[in-house]
Hints:
Layout: H1 6-20, E1 25-26, H2 32-44, H3 60-63, E2 69-70, E3 73-74, H4 76-85, H5 93-107, H6 110-118, H7 121-124, H8 137-151, E4 155-156, E5 174-179, E6 187-192, E7 195-201, H9 206-210, E8 218-222, E9 225-226, H10 234-241, E10 247-252, H11 266-275, E11 295-297, E12 300-314, H12 322-331, E13 337-343, E14 347-352, E15 358-363, E16 367-372, E17 379-385, E18 396-402, H13 406-421, E19 425-426
Parallel strand pairs: 1-4
Antiparallel strand pairs: 2-3, 5-10, 6-7, 6-19, 7-8, 8-9, 8-10, 11-12, 12-13, 12-18, 13-14, 14-15, 16-17, 17-18
Helix pairs in contact: 1-2, 1-8, 4-5, 6-8
Amino acid sequence: MAGKEPLLSALKGGVLRLREGGGPCTDASPHLTSLCQLLESILRKGLRQPVWGFGKRDYWHWLEQLPTEDGGRPTPLAISIQKAGSCEKARTAQGRGRYFLRLALQGKVLAAAVRQLAQTPRLLEFYDPASSILGNEDLLEPFLSLLLVVTEMDFSLDLQNCSFLDESWLLPVCITYETVPCRVLGMVLRYVDGRVFVTEVLPESQAEVDEVVLAGDILDEINGCSLRNAYSGQAGAVLQKLKGQPLSFCLLRWRWHDGEVYEPLLPYLKVLKEKEPHFQLQRSPRRRGEGEPRRLQGGRLLYNLRYLGRTSVGKYGGKEVLDWAIPAVLEGHWAAREVLFDVMEAEVLVQEKSSSKVLCRYPYPTISCVGRCMDSSNLFAFCVAASPESPDGSTFDCLVFASSSEQECEEIIKRIAAGFKHTEWFV
């Protein structure tokens, strides 16, 4: 009978190919994905949809209704169903069903699930006897025989890697990144449809020193806490609670095994590029020693800059004023001061280089704009509210600095903009 059903013939061939590999079947096994796709097609074949069209029915909907106890104790099958149903990373019936299939292969309970279905008439009614395999007695038996063969096989799957099962059977490259306790890791994050993307690894930060995280990777977990469907700032909030503790991240790589972009990421990367036109996927870690020299103080990255002076720009602090405010400061011929410039999580801090005396500090809400002088690529400036409590309204001052290179200048501007716009999160 199995030969009359193409899906069963294909499943038989898939099982034989998987067995030829010898040893436990892993996520790297070339025939695993096709086997899972075949199993899913069989479980969906002939699945009746609700008459009134209230939601689409999938095989997970009968799986979650299977009896869960045997003599008062949960069975291995029930435990797998419970794990799939409570998985924070699977948000849809499709994702939970796929996660269950992976759990069932590893736990050797898939045949038990189908056998339990056959013994539960109200759930068996989910299938049309004329068009399904599970609802047809003549086809159900050979299917169960194949599942018993699968049960004899050993699977060693990374069950933690399940965040993209809602969208695809194709799994991303998943790695663990462990790092020492530190005040600031040095990753710039952007939230896109509940996923936490790393958009930049800051120079000489702990994350760069570790040489693991790349721009474009996804933070999937922090110390076991799932970041799937994360709200803006959730990663930072989790890290704040874990302050002073060793950290373990589950990272999803943007690059797949073939060296190309992991295909299910493409829609997310398109949105990310629209939000951040200058964003680029990072192909390899930036080696320590590259780029301009920096100074470290208490583990923090400081920029060696020259402070050129400040000027009042009136009651409007938009970026347009920089076109005339920067030249105005230069024409004033202020005595330049060597300073250490620190772009912190909540503010910008400027210290005198020789004594480390704090010259000024500006929380991001007081910064109205930041930009570069087009005539001199290593000059930048930002405007700050000079009298926020004035009854006549705020007035603004423009502060001008010189950096050692155009690259450093752009880096500082980007970090300040990320802070005062509150559209990105530093962790």
